[in-house]
Amino acid sequence: MTRIQANLVLLLAAAIWGGGFVAQSTAMKAIGPFWFIGLRFAVATIVVLPFVWMENRKTRKPLTRRNWLSFFLIGVALFGGAATQQIGLLTTTVTNSSFITGLYVVFVPLIAVVFLRRPPHWIIWPAATTALGGIYLLSGGSFSRLTVGDFLTVVCALFWAAQITLAGSSVSETGRPLGISAMQFAVTAVAALAVAVVAEPISIADIQGALGQILYVGIFSSGLAFVLQVIGQRYTTAPQAAIFLSSEALFGASLGSLLLGETMGPLGYAGCALMFIAMLAVELVPELVRRRSVAA
């Protein structure tokens, strides 16, 4: 695969993820958030299992009890992110959700500073400030205008950052990215369905009403897009991969406007731009600085 082809594959993955925000939002006209989360991740688990089987055939190192515990904790973090994002979409827009969720890129190194005691790259602090300014503008110049859904989506980004940090450590230790994916999907599905059974009504008609969205995010957002990401990143550079994958937020906002008629004022668009700049800076600047130091 050429680099151009690889970048197009990553762009397709980002577009699929962007479409997932629209599917998540519209599904709740027919079904409760926890039923939706449980069913989508149950589908995602089934989709990923054949790839896990192939991965297990190539991996000889057995998993330890510590590995299984880390897989479970990754699933708990994913459930926290999925739940806060899905409930947040009840009171926020697809545009806001897609950009605020993308702030996990900024939160990942901050979590590494706090919990892993890793020294931060200098770009983290200006990027975090820029992202905060973006949220301020997204609110129209007043944090009081942010909805409960917006705040829940910030919490969602923190959960995503925790999930990525834990998953990155586990992948390095076990070499089983697909096994981790299946485990975290299964944990999230079981936890969400347990909450749904207690807290939300359900009927066959409800499931049928949201079936298209459930299958889209279960098969494409969680299954196909993940595989495309893994394939694409093998044949392109880290900075280019970061740019194309970060376009998920742009696709989410664009599809929210096109399919749902969402609009915002100039301050909102300026806020989105600032958050997108912060995301790219965190991904690109450390890699570019590293390359310059190596070249020198």
TrEMBL record:
Annotated ranges, domain EamA: 7-139, 148-281
Any coiled-coil regions, as ranges: none
Compartments, record wording: Cell membrane
Pfam family, one: EamA
Entry keyword Transmembrane: yes
KW Transmembrane (keyword) present: yes
Keyword entries, A-Z: Cell membrane, Membrane, Transmembrane, Transmembrane helix
Transmembrane segments: 33-54, 66-87, 99-116, 123-139, 151-171, 178-199, 211-231, 243-261, 267-285
Bilayer disposition of the protein: Multi-pass membrane protein
Protein known as: DMT family transporter
Organism of derivation: Rhizobium mayense
